[in-house]
Amino acid sequence: MSAVIDARIQAVLDRFSEAEAQPSLKLDVLDATVRGGGNVLPFRSPQPAQPEVTNAGITRKPLLLDLFCCAGGAGVGYARAGFEVVGVDIVPRPSYPFAFLQADAMTLDPKFLAMFDAIHASPPCQSYSDLAKRNGNGDEWPRLIEPVRDMLAATGRPYVIENVEGSPLIDPVVLCGTMFPGLRVLRHRLFEANFPITPPPHRKHPKVHTFDKRKSHFGKTNEWIDFVQVTGGGNCTLAAARDAMGIDWMTKGEINEAIPPAYTEFVGRQMLPVVLARAEASAVEA
Q: How far apart are CA 106 and CA 281, in angstroms?
């Protein structure tokens, strides 16, 4: 990480400490707790970063805030797209591979949010899920999409909100694993943004590897070649699920909730020109 980016993240930590009335956090002494629990984990097929942003003579990567970050599936995609990423979640996330702050995303200081060039949010999805609808217990989980949207819109920054099908996102695009070579999961996810996202072609769904002997293709698929299901009990080993998702650092529980990094790498590459244009306009105004 460059000295310029380190300085920006240090400023973020200082602002966070001020808002939370804590002693100022320091990168040099908090690598073990701030940078992904001390685990700088390998990414599957990492891609070279985009050219760094030039803003008022300072060359740097744009800084993206990853809210409700979980174990970092979205964050890794944005990093591959060319962003420096800081994650926030309400519980510890020792597997998160970037700078991490434990906090309630809904109580963050607007001045803290304004320190970032872009924001991604993946609010809890349980209330909107098919399972909750079938069980009639969606009210047992928080419904945060609307307040999250209001919070992000107020920043004036480019933002993305990700969630499951059935969630109340506005004009979302659907991403599916069939759109990305190398992925072997369907995993439909919706993405709302305040900038245009053009999705790839949505290809025909293949048959998914199964343990169900009642299905006609039972015994005719391979968990290392064919599409698999990784939610809940799943239908494949953890190793095969990691390979199918393009994720090689998560536990079974973490991967059940994750999105493939390929999704946010795709979204991030469409977000980056918006961030660049905004930075250039701010530099001219300054």
A: 29
Cβ contact 66:89 at 8 Å: no
What whole-number distance in Å separates Cα of residue 62 and Cα of residue 55? 10
Torsion, CA 126, CA 129, CA 133, CA 134, rounded to 10: -100
The C-alpha atoms of residue 204 and residue 85 are separated, in whole angstroms, by: 33
Dig out the tokens for 172 from the structure. 């979302």
The DSSP secondary-structure symbol of 208 reads B
Environment class of residue 240 by beta-carbon count within 10 Å: exposed (0-12), middle (13-18) or buried (19+)?
buried
Nearest to 35 by CA among 102, 80, 78, 98: 98
Amino acid at 159: Y
- How many residues in total does the chain contain? 286
User: For tokens 């369907």, what's the residue?
Assistant: 186
Residue 106 is given by DSSP the state: G
Two structure tokens written together for 28: 């040099």
Q: 114-128: per-residue pLDDT in tens? A: 999 999 999 987 555
For the chain, domains (ranges, CATH) are 3-205+262-285 (3.40.50)
pLDDT in tens, 208-237: 998 888 888 888 899 999 999 887 666 889
What does 43-71 look like in DSSP terms, one character per residue?
Answer: PSS--PPPPPEEETTEEEPPEEEEET-TT
CA distance 79 to 84: 6
Output the six-digit token pair for 230. 């990784």
pLDDT digits (tens, 9 = 90+) for 45-69: 333 333 344 444 335 789 999 999 9
pTM exceeds 0.90 for this model: no
- Beta-bridge partner residues of 250: none
CB neighbourhood size of 51 (10 A): 11
